Amino acid sequence: MKISEVKNLPKIAAPGGRVVTEVSPEFLKEKGVGIVTYGIAPNEVIEFPDTEADIKPFTRTVRPNSDAVETLIVVKRNGEFGYFSVAALRRMDYQGKFVGPVCQALQNEASDYARVAKLCGKKLTCKEMTKIKVRKFDNGVMTDELTERDVPVLEYA
C-alpha cells in the first residue's frame, strides 16, 4: 500500500470529546498505550504500508481530558483504506505472554515504529480468536483484578 494511493479515508470515531491528531511516524518510537479499537476480526486481511515512507499514523485520546492516546496507522483492510491499532502488534496477557505468531515474532522490537517497519509490505490475517486474562483498569489506573477477553490471533497472510 502506497500512501499516495490513499483516497477517502474514513473518519476516525472520536466520541465524547476525544481528540484525533495526525502525527509523524517518529511518534511510533514513543511509548504507547495498549488500547485496541481498530483491531482485526476473523478472516479479515490487513495490508501494511509498502515502505516506511508510506507509514501514516494518527492518535486518538483514550478519554476526554487525557494525555493517553491510542495510536492508529493507515492500512488496507480487506482492500479498503482504513486504520489499525498499533497496540494489537504487542498484545499479551497479564503475565506478559505474547499472543500468536506475529506478536511473538515482534516482541523484542524496541518500539512500535520498529514493529510496523518490520511489517511493511506484508499482510496479516486472523483465523481464530483466543481467550486471555488481562488486568482491569479503573479510570486509567491498573487494578489487581483480572478479566477474560477474546482476542484475535494475528498470523501472516
Question: What do these coordinates show?
Answer:
The protein is mostly beta strands. It is 10% helix and 37% strand. The chain has two helices and seven strands. It has helices at residues 100-106, 112-119; strands at 20-22, 45-47, 57-61, 69-77, 80-85, 123-138, 141-156. Strands 1, 2, 3, 4, 5, 6 and 7 form a seven-stranded antiparallel β-sheet that branches. Strand 3 (57-61) and strand 4 (69-77) form a beta hairpin. The longest helix has 8 residues, at 112-119. It starts with 19 loop residues before the first strand and ends with a strand. The model has no long low-confidence stretch (mean pLDDT 92).
The proportion of residues in beta strands is 35-45%
The major beta sheet can be summarized as: 7 strands, antiparallel
End-to-end separation in angstroms reads 15 Å
Radius of gyration: 15 Å
The secondary structure category is mainly beta
* Bulk shape: globular
Mean pLDDT: 92
Characteristics:
157 residues; mainly beta; seven-stranded antiparallel sheet; globular
Secondary structure layout:
Elements: E1 20-22, E2 45-47, E3 57-61, E4 69-77, E5 80-85, H1 100-106, H2 112-119, E6 123-138, E7 141-156
Antiparallel strand pairs: 1-3, 2-4, 2-6, 3-4, 4-5, 6-7
In short:
With 157 residues, this protein is mainly β. The protein has helices at 100-106, 112-119, and strands spanning 20-22, 45-47, 57-61, 69-77, 80-85, 123-138, 141-156.
